[in-house]
């Protein structure tokens, strides 16, 4: 980890030790699948805490369980054992409605593929989750324009996804993830579908904007070079974090 990352990590640690609850606390998180009569342990007692504002890289090769871990934290599927506390609330046992509220109010998501709505322009893709959250349209428009402009898309606000490059589409996805000011952003290989130079630019903008917003983030990647740009790196190996 470089000096800047160490310094950043030191600030996060100070914030956490100053009495703030972790944004995310995983305790003994486990997940198993049965395939062909054989039990496969994907996650084996994962423990992880992320402090407010901390950006953590989840490093591991394809198939190591990174996406499964993010699905657990994102409350996107059941079948997990252990504890998932988000903003000091036990979320693992919430019903479907409760999980939806937590996802809407506290989490943001960025995937490898942008999943933008093709019939909506860049601004509208960022406005929509805010309207679902209960924002007024004027405020949502201003928030969307501000985020997109901060990501270098001020001249592309009315363009639809098909009119944007891959890097521009992913920037819109980043803005959408931050639209409702989430406490925690979950990113699953967010630059994995981009060429190296574009990936570097998009990741730098992602990190800058997440830090500027004061959100924490858990970013799954197999790229060690990109992982080192974050505050802390944890490695998933054989279902356990190292």
From TrEMBL:
Keywords: ATP-binding, Nucleotide-binding, Transport. The keyword Transport applies. GO terms for molecular function: ATP binding. The keyword ATP-binding applies. Residues 24-242 form the ABC transporter domain. InterPro entries: AAA+_ATPase (IPR003593), ABC_transporter-like_ATP-bd (IPR003439), ABC_transporter-like_CS (IPR017871), ABC_transpr_LolD-like (IPR015854), MacB-like_ATP-bd (IPR017911), P-loop_NTPase (IPR027417). PANTHER family: IMPORT ATP-BINDING PROTEIN, LIPOPROTEIN-RELEASING SYSTEM ATP-BINDING PROTEIN LOLD. Belongs to the ABC transporter superfamily. This is ABC transporter ATP-binding protein.
